[in-house]
């Protein structure tokens, strides 16, 4: 139970081996410290994993967690999180999803579900108003994600004699066959990264459905309504959230990335793709975008819908356009849309699949691993993706990801991954703060978990992407802010609004140029704030999240407390990963990014990682080993 609104006040453990549930104690003090979502999941993993567990062992846990805003109607607040020990990285990881499962999990009466053990045969689990029913899933075996969800909907309707409104998560063939980067799909959205689908597969859990009649309460309905109205108006008037994202989606970033030399090309050998105009957001909008769509309660609606095989399906995001475009030297946009759909249907992360493929193409070219895959290859790839999902032929090897392949065959310098997770499409040698973020990110090579500094280094603001100055402190504060936003249950894309719209509209205005020049020197000031964020005992309109949390839950939340909650989240995830061997030595990038300048005539165009890492650890108050010590964990109230 809880005294706070927004939450359902219930966390359950579901044991797949015994098919029984039990309550998990999660107190209001825990809610105040961790808010919800990924921070809550990380704390649960911290309290339950010892370091001896393996990703595919029954002792591994899956935590599906919502935030207090999930399902309350707050802007873009339908998100939920899946955390577990990742088979791709071997450390804990979280994967955020915009599908409708979180919303319906709360309707079923739960804030979070902790799954342990394993089924003997393939099963799917129905949650109905907090009651759990196990169903044999033999007839769903090898079904793709769309067909799985359609079949489950029919089964539920038939069993209950009426149309059931429910949320679902499921895996496809890739998850069943333990592809290390298999995703979990909810509707058309993916918890794509880190192989959460393979953990489902290892537990022989094909799908979960959730339905119910519970409704999360809102603490101050009038205050919340007024606040949300203003926020939605702001989102709609902002050039990024009200114009670029609705018109072009994340694909709208391709052209800016090209201009700044940030577009991964030919397995990150280059930062510009000559044929980028064939695969950018503008071309997608003009030639293929037939409709817009969005996650529940989202005023941004960034999803493009495109035609594939006679259907209208979710279009590719920027990461997929970059990595299945220039990064494998492909300029066929329709083909990217088709692969994007196929990968979602197979239940496989597009980023890791494409990153592994690019490594294989270069390894083949260099004679390191003769797979027959070549840059520019198009015809064979649909079959290759199917082979990966079913672990057939070279697919069985590609299913292992680029780190394991490069360790086996060589070519580690150009395996574009960190901690085993393939990087997104932002080439960091022209945005070195993003490079630092990729390396230190708790879950591995993730642009968002890394602080997404590329937004300040060319895609929103335009601070010098080549200088390491100030980047470590900015990286930390951005990571913490994004952690806290995510914990509430909101989409990170709302944070584009943190940069005032007039600065985006006038990139060469006097103020913007002044800000761009000054920000790299703001490191010491940012660090002081990072040390005592409680000095911000107020809230500001540009960061509306703490105020929204207050109106929804009744929990008093200042900007400082919100930042601290984000820091706590980041540290608890790091602390649990320390048990699985993570330290400064794992905060690495491939040599291509740290030792080889992108422009051979400009030695600055590489990531000065070791230099920035030292400042970053100091800023975080971590030891030289890159880990939070006992004192730090106590200070944050984690221990
Ligand atoms: S901005 Fe896009 S991804 Fe985020 S909630 Fe809205 S539609 Fe979903």
Number of domains: 3
Number of strands: 17
Q: Summarize the main sheet.
A: 6 strands, mixed
What is the mean pLDDT? 96
- Spatial shape: globular
Q: Ligands bound here? A: iron/sulfur cluster
Distance between the termini: 23 Å
Low-pLDDT residue spans: none
Going by helix content, strand content and strand pairing, the class is alpha+beta
Beta fraction: 5-15%
Helix segment count?
26
CATH homologous superfamily of the largest domain - what is it? Aldehyde Ferredoxin Oxidoreductase Protein, subunit A, domain 3
CATH class of the largest domain: Mainly Alpha
Radius of gyration over all CA atoms, rounded: 23 Å
CATH architecture of the largest domain: Orthogonal Bundle
**CATH fold naming of the largest domain:** Aldehyde Ferredoxin Oxidoreductase Protein, subunit A, domain 3
What is the helix content?
25-40%
